[in-house]
Amino acid sequence: MDYKKTVQNLISGSDIVIGSEDGADLQVHNEKFYKRVITEGSLGLGESYMDGWWDAKSIDDLIFKLRKLNIDKKIGKSKLFFMALSALLVNLGSRSRAFIVGQKHYDIGNDLYRYMLDKRMVYTCGYWKDAKNLDEAQEAKLDLVCRKLYLKPGMKVLDIGCGFGSFAKYAAEKYGVSVVGITVSKEQADLAEKICQGFDVKIKISDYRDVNEKFDRIVSLGMFEHVGRKNYRTYMKVARRCLKDDGLFLLHTVGSNSSHVMGDIWVNKYIFPGGMVPSIKQIGKSIEKLFVMEDWHNFGADYDKTLMAWFSNFDKNWDKLKDKYGERFYRMWKFYLLSFAGSFRARNLQLWQIVLSKNGVLGGYKSIR
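User: That's the sequence. What structure does it adopt?
Assistant: Structure tokens below.
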């Protein structure tokens, strides 16, 4: 099989040029690249980039163009079939595996996140409607969440997947609420406690299934992607159990245009172990007879801007990080951030904020944008 010709045929519907150094064009440094990407799909594409087999001036634009071609549906069927089969059999978000993503991703070093994120250290999509920079976009997102939840002083809020405590601190400081934040990352918990010091915030290292308290409001920003399809219903039952009858639950998650049984192979191996992006159908099934859907807001295009800002910060500060992390990590992290930016730009991925109530808001919920 002529793998190079196959690749050329696959990208013929785009303006991607092999050998050029412009924009999204490919510079191939190892001819084995062609066979690797055809037989291994996204895993081969990501790993071969990490290995230095190819480069592109604009990886985000390259992925954008490949996504618009639906290239992932045309390549890498053989090896990935067996990986998909194993994903059907294994519960990647089980209780026994719940802390793996914390250890593999969120515990790799708070220094990395300090240099990459905004001043509040928000590791979820910003809201760029009226924002001019990352700091403004993230503060706007935090305030948007607080307003959508109609927070009032004295309310008790559960933050599932609290990250570095950015939302907990903001909500406690600006809206006078009490927050319990849970995370599976020790490093995140340690820093979150310092960031939230002096505010009515309690940070716990805990699996979401172990929470049994009652709350006026529940928020989950960028954690549902780690739950796994086998656990969506369990997750929603826990949220219902912990929410007061007149409470509101805001779910902020990356979303997919179609239902999948597993996440991206390369992302699962190197970035988010057990990660999976839910579809509208999967979320809908998980909340049936448990919640009333009050509001569904999609601002996925804003994640493109957020990821590009994160990469700019990461790249600008790499000299302060390179001795600790090394060149292969740089290429891995660069591919992660820019490939996701390209996927959101292509509208292959979405960002949803969904407001749920247990019994329906009397008189109707007033949507906020």
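The radius of gyration is 21 Å.
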